[in-house]
Every structure is written in structure tokens, then in C-alpha cells.
Design goal:
The complex is a heterodimer of chains A (111) and B (507).
Chain A: E1 7-8, H1 10-23, E2 29-37, E3 43-51, E4 57-61, E5 64-68, H2 70-76, E6 80-86, E7 89-95, E8 101-102, E9 108-110
Parallel strand pairs in A: 1-6, 2-5
Antiparallel strand pairs in A: 2-3, 3-9, 4-5, 6-7, 8-9
Chain B: H1 3-8, E1 10-14, E2 17-22, H2 26-33, E3 45-52, E4 58-68, E5 71-76, H3 81-91, E6 98-102, E7 106-110, E8 120-124, E9 127-132, H4 144-151, H5 171-175, H6 186-194, E10 200-207, E11 217-220, E12 223-234, E13 237-245, E14 254-259, E15 262-269, H7 278-294, H8 298-311, H9 316-328, H10 332-345, H11 350-362, H12 366-418, H13 423-435, H14 439-452, H15 457-469, H16 473-490, H17 493-506
Antiparallel strand pairs in B: 1-7, 2-5, 2-6, 3-4, 4-5, 7-9, 8-9, 10-13, 10-15, 11-12, 12-13, 14-15
Chain lengths: 111, 507
């Protein structure tokens, strides 16, 4: 699967690798990116550990796997997953060049 | 294979002959004569059906089209028309039924074409079908002969079926109902079914080569293991409609066959050869659509999603994905239409309302957008509630399962205290330890079970699962091969087939 579906910054990747080392998930587990309904602007992102499913798109970075199910890929195509640890808060941030609205929390978007 | 038929459907005119049963006791009469359950068939539906002799051998086969309990049509190969009428006449005593030759012709519409035609509904060649008395224009029939051949449904080649015990034919799956009550030959058929099953059975063999003139018999290591009814070559392969013995009749088993000086390999398939239906084909198209979208081919993605929906109008993910693609292209009205259809299909869909809210917002319909946003919020809370309830139920079930396992374990251990070699108790403990993922303990128990009773076919199956889980793959293969032999000799076809499938996966 092409890594161009989503981009992951070096900082975000470093953070993911740290989490993987700490949690030590089994080889069938990856970090799942998904989209759910709701949120102040409509759609919101979800990021959590999950088991690899049959039709997942799998982005591999060494031992780290990032998983996106086929339907979520329609929503997520083109996003950039970054990690910000500035004064305004620490955490994963989804930068979506397709998003027409993003709410202040940065978690919710519309396309 | 045959993508054209799955994507576009098929219509053909049949040259089979129609016989009409008319009268107040038509349904009652044919119910008592034939092997399938006519009473439970809905009006304006059809089914395969057969008539047998007292020894369970097929005398006649036909498609039964039920208009009502008082009017039933039988569609049969033309060579069997008079045979069928004679047989029905012979057993018609006092019932109020007239048996009439009917000169109407029939057309068959298969797949998506069946959705647009009036007639008798059913399944034919493993596709949804309608048999119609309307004079339909044939459509997409180029591959009909090949498709019918490999799907295994009976054809005009009556020698394949006539005179065979019905259990040995594909008609057992298509046309025999074991719960429907008495008919001529029923006793024999049921006895065979409830014991070891048929000694020989219909299969489709697939050979990765273009071969002809293979004779009448299937020979393996100098022994006859079955017979050949007919063969067909296409797409650089040879397909054979055949009958093979129980020992070799396992899905995906590779047979090493010979004919004169030719040696060849054939793979065994149960009929129908193409097992997936329109919904599965729709899923394949959906997967292709997603790949196309990911490769920036949005127009191809849209085309495939539209086709996917046409094949399966209940395919929620297809509506959602297509709607989102239209949304990305700023075709908001089209996107909203799709989300409305999604919402109709699934009133609990959070994404339908979320997306409608977003697209109405983009169109400037603020009030409608806010309404959908509220609905999305309500639906998502409902979903949280349901998920929490499901989780609670799962936890309860898991707790019950553990309690039951504990109870079974205590029972088996009591038996093992009396007799540590007891096969059933060792099997039971082996199965429990497999569930608990203690594979090495499981293996110990199961090996004992087989040592005590080498014909315990399910023990081989469970042992092979434990071996695979503990990564002892070579040993697992050996056990599977032994287990398949034992199971087929016992007539335990379900574990035999499961082990065969596992062996193929391991190879």
C-alpha cells in the first residue's frame, strides 16, 4: 500500500514508536486511524491500538504498523498526522488539507 | 471468472418442456411424490425437484414452478417430458389433478437481470433467478454453456443423473429435503444420508492444462476412484463433471490421476464451482473501488461503487463511500441523496446524518445542517449505549462459558482419575486446554485420545489446531493427513473437509 495515502511526520512517528516500545503490543496489533461521526464540526478522528483486520491498509515503519480500514481511507486520504508538544497542548494533531472547517480543539473537521 | 455474468446478468430462452399440474390437490399430489418440500415453497417461486424409484434412484428431475397450491408447472429436459408424465400418471389415483403438456416457452433471467423481470423467483446456477413466461430478449449468453457446466446444476445430459441414487448426485443438495415426509425412495435416501453418506458424489474437477479424451473413468494409482460424465476446455484449463468416491471427495484436494500414458493433477471442487454470489461480487467491486480511489482514479472508483450498489442495493458502505467521494468533488446534492439512502437502509447510521449535516452546511442550508447534526449526536449516544450493553452481554457470556468449562473440566478429570486413558475424557480436556490456549497441555491430552482410539476423527482435527497454534507446523500436517484418512473412512465429512482446508492453507 502506498504510504502516500496519509503522511506521518517524523515527530509523530517518533512518538508512535515510543508508545509501541512502552506498550509492546503483539505483532498483529497496530495503531488504527479512523474517522467517527460527531464532534463540533461533524467528523472527528480516532486514534487507538487495534488488531490488524483483513482489508486494512497497513503503513509499516520498522516494527510499527499504522492501520486504516478501507472506508476510513476515503475520509483520511491526504491527511498529515503530526505531533505537537508546544505551550498550547501536547498530542497528536491531524492536519487535513481537505478540511474546510476545523474547530478550535483541532480534533474535529469537515471535508 | 464470468465477471460479465455477475456484473451484467444473463437472459436465455429455455428449450425444456413445461408440464402443468392443475387441480385442487395439485400441491398435495406432487408433495407426496417428489423429494423437495413443495408445501413450504412460496407462490411464484421455483425449486429443483426429483422423482425417484423405490431404491432411491432418480427417475426424473425438473424445476418446479409454483403459481399456487392449485397450479404448478414442471420444467424438464425434453428427453424426460414423457417419462415424467408417465410416472406422474402411474401414481395419480383419485386426486383432483390434471396433468397437461403446456406449450408455453420459458425464459430465465439471472443475476441483476432477475430484478427487472416478472415470474417465478428462485436460485439457478447459484445466482438469484426468475423463470418467466414472457418472451425475453436473450442477453449476455456467450458464456452460458460454460457457466452452467461448472456450476454443476443438472443439464440436458440426463445420463449424468438418471439411474443414480440421488445421494450420489448434486440434486441431493438442490432438490432433497430431509424433513418433508414420505415419498417413494425416501427410506433408502434417508438411510444413506444418516449413515456414512453417499459412497460416490458429484464434483467438478479443475485441471490446469488443456486435456481431451480422458476416457470414462478416473484412475488414481491404478485404482478407479470415480467416473467422468463430461469435460470442457476454456481459459487454458480443463473442467470435468465427475463422480468420485468418498475418500477423495474433499474440497480442494489434489488428485494425481492417470489416463493411458497421461498423468495429470486435478483439484476437487464441490458444486457450485463459483461459490460467491452477487453480494460477494459487490464486495469485490467495492474493494476495487477503494483501491482506485487511493490511486487517485476517482471516476473509476465511482463507476465501481455504482455497480456495487446495483448488485447489492443494501450495501451501506458503498453508499457512504460514494457519498463521501461526491462530497470531496463538491457534488453536494448527489452526496446528500446517497446519505439519505444510507439513512433509510440504516436508521441508526451516525455517519449518514454527520455527512448530511456537513454537506447541507456547504450548501448554506444551516437549519437543516443543524438538524442533522443533532440527529448525529443522538444516534452516536444511542450507539454508545448499545455498545456498552453488548459489551456487558459479551462479558456475561464469557463468564458463563468459563463456568461451563470449569464444570466440564471437573467432569473429565473425575473420569481420568478412574481411567487415565479414556478417549472421550482426554479429548474433552484437550479441547478445554485449546480454548484456554495452553497448547502443550492440549497436545498431551489429544495425543492420548488418539492413542486410545485411533479412529477418533475429531481428535485429529483438534490436535492439529493445537499444533498449529504452537507453531509445530510439520507435525500438524502429518496429523491432518492421518486425520483426513480416518475421517473419510468413517464418513465424517465435516471434520474431513475442515482438515483438508487446513492442510491446503498450510501447504
Amino acid at each position: 500500500m502506498s504510504k502516500e495515502l496519509v503522511q506521518i511526520t517524523e515527530k509523530a512517528l517518533g512518538q508512535i514508536k515510543e508508545i509501541f516500545e512502552k506498550e509492546a503490543p503483539d505483532k498483529n496489533t497496530g495503531l488504527r486511524l479512523a474517522v467517527v461521526g460527531g464532534g463540533c464540526s461533524g467528523l472527528s478522528y480516532k486514534i487507538e491500538f487495534g488488531q490488524i483486520k483483513d482489508k486494512d491498509n497497513i503503513l509499516e515503519f520498522g516494527d510499527v504498523k499504522v492501520l486504516i480500514d478501507p472506508k476510513s481511507s476515503i475520509y483520511l486520504k491526504g491527511i498529515v498526522l503530526d505531533y505537537k508538544d508546544g505551550l498550547n497542548g501536547k498530542g497528536f494533531v491531524f492536519d487535513n488539507p481537505n478540511a474546510k472547517n476545523t474547530c478550535g480543539c483541532g480534533e474535529s473537521f469537515s471535508v | 471468472m464470468f465477471n460479465n455474468i455477475f456484473q451484467n446478468g444473463l437472459i436465455f430462452k429455455s428449450n425444456w418442456k413445461l408440464i402443468e399440474l392443475a387441480g385442487s390437490e395439485a400441491e398435495h399430489f406432487i408433495q407426496n411424490q417428489s423429494t423437495n418440500d413443495v408445501k413450504s415453497l412460496n407462490n411464484n417461486h421455483f425449486q429443483w425437484n426429483t422423482l425417484l424409484d423405490i431404491a432411491g434412484k432418480v427417475v426424473s428431475y425438473f424445476l418446479l414452478l409454483k403459481q399456487s397450491s392449485e397450479k404448478i408447472f414442471l420444467l424438464t429436459p425434453k428427453d424426460l417430458e414423457d417419462v415424467l408424465i408417465d410416472r406422474l400418471d402411474k401414481y395419480l389415483i383419485a386426486e383432483d389433478v390434471n396433468i397437461i403438456k403446456n406449450e408455453q416457452s420459458c425464459s430465465f433471467a439471472l443475476g441483476i437481470k432477475a430484478k427487472k423481470v416478472n415470474g417465478f423467483k428462485g436460485t439457478f446456477l447459484n445466482l438469484p433467478a426468475v423463470i418467466s413466461f414472457e418472451d425475453l430478449e436473450p442477453f449476455n449468453t456467450n458464456d452460458l454453456e460454460k457457466f452452467w457446466f461448472i456450476q454443476g446444476d443438472p443439464t440436458e445430459n440426463t445420463s449424468e443423473v438418471l439411474g443414480n441414487i440421488v445421494n450420489n448426485t448434486y440434486l441431493e443438495e438442490l432438490a432433497v429435503n430431509y424433513k418433508k415426509g414420505c415419498y417413494l425412495g425416501q427410506e433408502t435416501v434417508s438411510k444413506i444420508y444418516s449413515r456414512r453418506g453417499a459412497a460416490y458424489k458429484f464434483v467438478i474437477l479443475e485441471i490446469n492444462d488443456f486435456l481431451e479424451n480422458l476416457g470414462d473413468n478416473l484412475i488414481c494409482e491404478g485404482k478407479k476412484i470415480g467416473k467422468i460424465f463430461s469435460s470442457l476446455n476454456f481459459q487454458n484449463k480443463t473442467y470435468i463433471r465427475a463422480q468420485i468416491n468418498r475418500e477423495n471427495r474433499l474440497e480442494n484436494k489434489k488428485l494425481f490421476l492417470e489416463h493411458n500414458d497421461i498423468k495429470f493433477e486435478a483439484i476437487v471442487h464441490y458444486a457450485p464451482f463459483i461459490k460467491y454470489g452477487l453480494e460477494d461480487f459487490a464486495i469485490n467491486l467495492y474493494d476495487e473501488a477503494i483501491k482506485a480511489f487511493q490511486n487517485d482514479d476517482e471516476e473509476i472508483a465511482i463507476e465501481k461503487l455504482l455497480k456495487s450498489i446495483e448488485l447489492n442495493p443494501g450495501f451501506e458502505d458503498a453508499y457512504e463511500s460514494l457519498g463521501v467521494i461526491y462530497g470531496r468533488q463538491e457534488k453536494f446534492e448527489q452526496a446528500i441523496e446517497l446519505m439519505e439512502k444510507l439513512s433509510n437502509l440504516n436508521p441508526s447510521s451516525v455517519m449518514a446524518h454527520t455527512n448530511m449535516s456537513l454537506y447541507h452546511m456547504r450548501l448554506g442550508n444551516i437549519e437543516i445542517a443543524e438538524e442533522h447534526k443533532s440527529l448525529a449526536t443522538i444516534k452516536s449516544f444511542e450507539k454508545f449505549g448499545k455498545d456498552a450493553e453488548n459489551k456487558r452481554i459479551q462479558e456475561q457470556l464469557e463468564k458463563q462459558k468459563q463456568e461451563e468449562l470449569g464444570h466440564r473440566e471437573s467432569m473429565f478429570k473425575q473420569v481420568l482419575e478412574i481411567d487415565k486413558e479414556d478417549a472421550l475424557a482426554n479429548y474433552g480436556m484437550g479441547d478445554i486446554e485449546l480454548i484456554r490456549q495452553d497448547y502443550f497441555e492440549s497436545i498431551k491430552y489429544l495425543e492420548q485420545a488418539i492413542k486410545t482410539d485411533p479412529k477418533y476423527s475429531v481428535a485429529y482435527l483438534t490436535l492439529s489446531k493445537s499444533l498449529i497454534k504452537s507453531n509445530q507446523l510439520d507435525k500438524a500436517k502429518e496429523i491432518l493427513k492421518l486425520g483426513i484418512k480416518v475421517a473419510t473412512q468413517n464418513g465424517d465429512m465435516m471434520p474431513a473437509n475442515e482438515m483438508q482446508s487446513m492442510l491446503v492453507d498450510l501447504s
